[in-house]
Amino acid sequence: MSALDFTQTSTARRVDDDERTRILAEPGFGRYYTDFMVHARWTLEDGWGGAEIVPFGPVQLSPAAAVLHYGQEIFEGLKAFRHADGSVWTFRPERNAERMQRSARRLALPELPAGDFLSSLMAITAADEPWVPEATSEESLYLRPFMFASEEFLGVRASHCVDYYVIASPAGPYFPRGVQPLVVWISDEYARAGAGGTGAAKCGGNYASSLLAKREAAENGADEVMFLDSETHSSIDELSGMNVFAVTADGRLLTPSLTGSILEGVTRESILRLAADRGLEVIEQQLVMSEVLGQIDRGEITEMFAAGTAAVINPIGELRARGGSWTVGDGGSGEVTLALRTELTDIQYGRIPDRHGWLTRL
Ligand code: COI
Hints:
The protein is α+β, with helices and mostly antiparallel strands. Helices cover 25% and strands 30% of the residues. Residues 77, 241, 308-310 line the site of 2-OXO-4-methylpentanoic acid.
């Protein structure tokens, strides 16, 4: 059921046309923000209300706001894509709405009805329409819905006041080097999430806990970090903000099964479907790190890639660890990886038919 009606308080733009054109020419990832943001508030007494579209700008919070102390926060990530006819679309938003509800349950936050989630995306995209990059590029407008505990209270319990926002940021490639094979560091010390924890929820804490390992990866010349399961440190979980896949020489696509500590990526789910459609045998199972390294050494695994909304599909050229390094295939961008990437983005940008009905017009 949809109840919120997002009303715009001002139409004055924050960024002038020339500046916006300059930004859209090379947006990078997460560096620039649009003119507006969407806001709604939930209180224990009244539920959801106060839906508005306001100028993008600082959020005022009490220093005693619960989120600043106990991290009660969740978020989502989607993209708005412009098609050749000028229309603007997003990809499987109902899956993000459902995941945000699952994350909310795990973090004891209120669930935002799926209809309100979708209308918040429509509201920000309508207000910030000039920020959706042209169809000629491989760029998009990244939408970041999030909610957090805003009650001024230091007792440890679920907040009685929660703020929901959607901000938007024009996005090019997630990795600064573009879509180039990644070097991935295998973390032997840190885990991202444990059994019974919040690993399957999209909450800030999971990303905060990945940062030290990510810094260690960078110190070892790697672009990303791969986390192993927290209990045995033997099987692959995921990267710091992406799911991970391997392609075998005999036509299988492998990815870790959803154990409860892995994020249920919308891109992950879509790739599994596209891969099955093109005849790959799709296998979700526990991926034992030592076995994967052996399969790389023997040439049985020929490609690996990282996948997520922000990263799309990005080849992995090398795995690196304290004990050595393993070149995946020829270290370049694999054929299956690139074919899946092309097909996924062709659907998203409306260049081929949306045969699974994954697109929603904004
Ligand atoms: C996304 O892919 O949308 C994420 O939230 C991951 C983050 C690394 C940007």
